[in-house]
Amino acid sequence: MCGRFTLVTAPEKLMSRFHLQDIPFEWKPRYNIAPGQPIPAILADGGRRRIGQLRWGLVPSWARDEKIGSKMINARAETLREKPAFRRLFERKRCMIPADGFYEWKQMARGKQPMRITMRDGEPFAFAGLFDTWTAPDGHKLYTCTIITTRPNEVVADIHDRMPVILRPEHESAWLDRDRFDAEWLQSLLVPYDPQAMKAYPVSAMVGNPKNDRPECLEEAPWS
């Protein structure tokens, strides 16, 4: 699964990397992003990319209650076209979630060791995601998203049995294109990222508490 990630990249660099015209909300570095929180997400509308904030934890438009979102922070790539909650979104409501690292917990003899996984070059990347809009009984709208996961690559396999889908830069525009839907081809993008481009290192147990959203979360820590 993917249950925590980071985004500390400077906004100017993020805009350049993802071809954004602006960031229409207050930007601040995030060291320990958790489900249920608003997260940056990139969509394309008429060929133009825009970034906004969606709540992490998908609430499908047909849901009776928004509480379902806490159970839908991730969507398995292998079953996207089988699950009613995801099948329609896979066709028309694809998004990207920018990040520069994510956390997983490695089982050790003395307990679980939190690990941060990043690109070797430290550059930001994009998770493949899906989004939807839910309308509450009182009429207010809730915009939410989920992060797609796949089997782990060689870097993550020693830590966890799932990893988030990281899109290759050359596939990002096609993933966002709402007018293009080739199910087989899009499905072929939902695979583990090149392990040669990634690395993992141990971090402090403080990341286990989402209230700890500070730079120390990123620092390499001794093995437990």
- Helix segment tally: 4
Task: Identify the overall geometry.
Answer: globular
CATH architecture: Alpha-Beta Complex
**Rg computed from alpha carbons, rounded to a whole number of angstroms:** 17 Å
Which CATH first-tier class would you pick?
Alpha Beta
Give helix and strand order, one letter per element, not per position: EHEEEEHEEEEEEHHE
**What is the number of beta strands?**
12
- Amino-to-carboxy terminus distance: 22 Å
**CATH fold annotation:** hypothetical protein yedk fold
**DSSP helix fraction:** 10-25%
* Biggest sheet descriptor: 7 strands, mixed
Number of domains: 1
Estimated structural class: mainly beta
- Provide the CATH superfamily: SOS response associated peptidase-like
Keywords: Covalent protein-DNA linkage, DNA damage, DNA-binding, Hydrolase, Lyase, Protease
EC number: 3.4.-.-
GO molecular function: lyase activity; peptidase activity; single-stranded DNA binding
Organism: Brevibacillus thermoruber
